[in-house]
Design goal:
609 residues, mainly beta, eight-stranded antiparallel beta sheet, 1 helix, 41 strands
């Protein structure tokens, strides 16, 4: 009698997501067969539902650029739908969520190099609306669902702290335990469970950081009006979660304010995690976190003495930088003296696009120390707005060694200088408009200061570029005292080249109605004032003017970079005193700030869940 033939395992098919289920490669966790082309279509029962895929961390497909063996996920019911990802290698993909009720999955293997394959769980995506909350009291505790017990699987929770005008908020973590990503800090970015912290609404304001594992995030202070926590969990490992306390405090603002506060290197308010370097000396005694002014534990020294080396600080928020104090160090082992005699300064808002600080058209070289012990303070001639700050030594004695402190302030520390909601997302896209848009399908949120990674570009077809404008509707009349402008980065239409555009000069108009406009005037010429704009596409510039009552603010570009007009912006100001009477030209039925804020925030938060 002949032995029975072993049947080839079938794969693929139509699946119903009403109940959770699993998809695996044939034979998982043993090697999958060659010559496979498996296709699954997963369908949710309701048109409004979405599907989430969570992969088992044990994931092995032949690498080689995903050309031979791969899994492909598409956002629809066929191989013509939008591609959500093609994956191979031995790193499991993060959770994948459809935009609608159908997902298409294809697994392909060729004739050689089989591996263990994959296992994934599919189910209806739950938004976690019952775990999302807004916090408006002056203090409170934010905890992961179920804390102190383990948090549930498949959560998407948004915790939004709404800060009243004239107040700052401090967030301090008490406990922190999320599923760890072993590659986090190297190649990984917390792929499984994570907590993201935003300077504004979730996925709208700038991302301060993404955290997982057991390392407690540093204390965070924000003055932009909104601080958000976005909590994501997958279907695999659950840990104890987190607990954090927030406190709101009133800002002490005076007309005699000077922007010269120490930003936290010496005090420790800038955490070790916020300090990084191009390299450090091998013996572990000269690390980046030892570069605090007056530190008794040496200082920072790179692996080689070179002008290519740098030390960098992430301030977490865009701040106004006004000065740097530097100091050298003495080796405790050899008693040799090391100090930097000159350095250059580089700044960035996102940690990727950098500008070397200039003195006119040339890079400014700051003169630093003449001995290792005495601090030398360099004031920055034109204070600069930045989140990331790099010091790059240019000359030194014996070798590079550096301890330092940064000086400056929050933008909002000055009187009537509160951000009005472009960066944080408090102002919705519907209150941002422009004369034209190069990309007709782009949301107006691209014009948000720092928060957007692209920016507003007008249509190149407009016949009179001088008449282009970017406009913000503040919702109600405010006392406006300044604007911050920033350039933009985007792809040139239809080509692979990238625009880095900015506005060099502009005029500024304001209105209470959105119909009747008044320019801010130059008192010397009695003509509309021409404001100096930007000299670099990433670095923001702040321009202040006499207090003006306005609901609408409009920027008219006058001169721009060779790449054309590109802009992001924020408006600075404050609420009008209750006794202030708005002129009759204002819309008489405009609701109060409290009403518009209460109506707007839950709507925006719901959209982001």
């Amino acid at each position: 009698m002949l032995a029975a033939e072993v049947p080839i395992e079938q794969c693929g098919g139509q699946l119903d997501a009403s109940d959770p289920g699993y998809i695996t490669t044939p034979g998982y966790p043993l090697e999958y067969p060659p010559h496979q082309d498996c296709r699954w279509v997963i369908t949710a029962p309701e048109p409004s539902q979405r599907i989430v895929l969570n992969f088992n961390p044990h994931f092995e497909l032949e690498k080689l650029d995903c050309r031979y063996d791969f899994i492909e996920i598409r956002d629809g019911n066929s191989d013509a739908a939008d591609l959500l990802g093609r994956h191979c290698s031995n790193i499991a993909p993060p959770a994948i969520i459809s935009s609608g009720p159908v997902l298409y999955i294809r697994f392909v293997s060729d004739y050689a190099h089989q591996s263990a394959g994959f296992s994934l769980r599919y189910e209806i995506f739950k938004t976690g609306s019952d775990c999302s909350r807004n916090f408006t009291s002056l203090s409170g505790v934010i905890e992961s669902p179920g804390f102190p017990d383990k948090y549930p699987h498949n959560l998407e929770c948004n915790f939004i702290i709404i800060v009243p005008p004239h107040m700052d908020v401090t967030l301090t973590f008490l406990t922190f335990d999320l599923e760890n990503d072993p590659l986090q800090g190297a190649e990984g970015e917390c792929k499984y469970d994570w907590l993201e912290i935003y300077d504004g609404l979730p996925q709208v304001g700038p991302l301060i950081g993404r955290h997982c594992g057991t390392k407690t995030p540093p204390e965070i202070q924000s003055s932009t009006g909104i601080l958000s926590l976005s909590f994501h969990t997958d279907m695999a490992v659950a840990k104890d979660g987190f607990s954090a306390r927030y406190n709101m405090t009133y800002k002490e603002v005076s007309d005699n304010f000077h922007c010269s506060s120490a930003l936290g290197m010496r005090s420790g308010r800038i955490s070790d995690d916020q300090i990084t370097a191009s390299s450090v000396f091998y013996d572990g005694r000269w690390n980046a976190e030892q570069a605090r002014l007056h530190s008794e534990d040496h200082g920072w020294t790179p692996s080689t003495d070179s002008q290519k080396e740098y030390i960098q600080v992430d301030l977490q928020f865009v701040k106004l930088l006004t000065g740097i104090a530097t100091q050298g160090a003495v080796s405790k082992q050899t008693q040799k003296q090391y100090y930097v005699t000159s350095f250059k300064l580089e700044v960035s808002t996102n940690g990727e696009d950098w500008m070397v600080y200039r003195n006119g058209k040339s890079h400014k070289v700051f003169h630093a120390n003449s001995n290792p012990t005495d601090p030398v303070l360099n004031r920055i001639p034109q204070p600069v707005l930045a989140r990331f700050v790099r010091i790059r030594p240019q000359a030194w004695k014996t070798g590079i060694a550096l301890r330092f402190e940064l000086y400056g302030c929050q933008i909002t520390d000055q009187p009537c200088s509160e951000m009005q909601g472009m960066l944080s997302g408090l102002l919705p896209d519907s209150q941002i408009s422009a004369s034209s848009m190069r990309d007709l399908h782009a949301p107006m949120g691209v014009a948000r200061l720092v928060a957007s990674r692209s920016g507003w570009f007008p249509s190149p077809a407009q016949p009179v570029a001088r008449e282009e404008w970017l406009q913000v509707d503040l919702g109600v009349a405010k006392a406006v005292r300044g604007v911050i402008t920033q350039g933009a980065r985007g792809m040139d239409g239809g080509s692979s080249t990238e625009s880095r555009a900015y506005v060099r000069k502009y005029r500024l108009a304001h209105s209470l109605t959105g119909r009747d406009w008044t320019f801010i005037m130059d008192t010397k010429t009695n003509l509309p004032k021409i404001f100096e704009g930007n000299t670099h596409f990433d670095t923001p510039e702040i321009r202040r003017f006499n207090e003006t009552v306005a609901q609408f603010v409009r920027v008219y570009p006058e001169r721009w970079s060779p790449a054309g007009i590109g802009m992001r912006m924020e408006v600075l100001g404050c609420d009008l005193p209750e006794s202030t009477t708005v002129p009759d030209t204002a819309t008489p039925t405009m609701p109060s700030l409290e009403t518009t804020t209460a109506q707007r925030l839950p709507h925006r938060a719901q959209l982001l869940r």
